[in-house]
Design brief:
The chain has 116 residues and is mostly helical. The protein contains 3 helices and no strands.
């Protein structure tokens, strides 16, 4: 009987250990999600802003609108990333709520010089 008792206790200890490790793993993985999302959005914004400032260094635009090529996704990517940063992490890019505009790019892109 003692041999069976030790086997059952060992199985119970293994089940408890797996349960505790699973709870700890779930806790740490759930805490890592939001910062990783924020870093991914900021990387997307910075990449799009860098691509935009290559063609419009001062972010002054042309006739009050961003300088773009037909079918260019860069202003849309900037607007989408900044809108999502504002919505999820209170980024403060309120000019990006309506759509891709020159004001959104000027407010959102850190590579743009601040307009006086």
């Amino acid at each position: 009987m003692k041999g069976i008792s030790m086997t059952i206790e060992t199985i119970i200890y293994l089940i408890l250990a797996i349960l505790v490790l699973s709870v700890l793993l779930l806790f740490f993985l759930s805490q890592a999600g939001p910062p990783q999302d924020q870093f991914a959005l900021e990387a997307k914004r910075n990449s799009a802003c860098g691509a935009y400032t290559v063609r419009d260094f001062r972010c002054a635009g042309k006739s009050g609108s961003p300088i773009t090529n037909p079918g260019d996704p860069i202003p849309i990517n900037i607007q989408a990333a900044c809108h999502e940063l504002t919505r999820r992490f209170n980024g403060g890019y309120d000019k990006c709520e309506s759509g891709p505009s020159l004001e959104c790019i000027q407010q959102c892109c850190m590579t743009c010089p601040k307009q006086a």
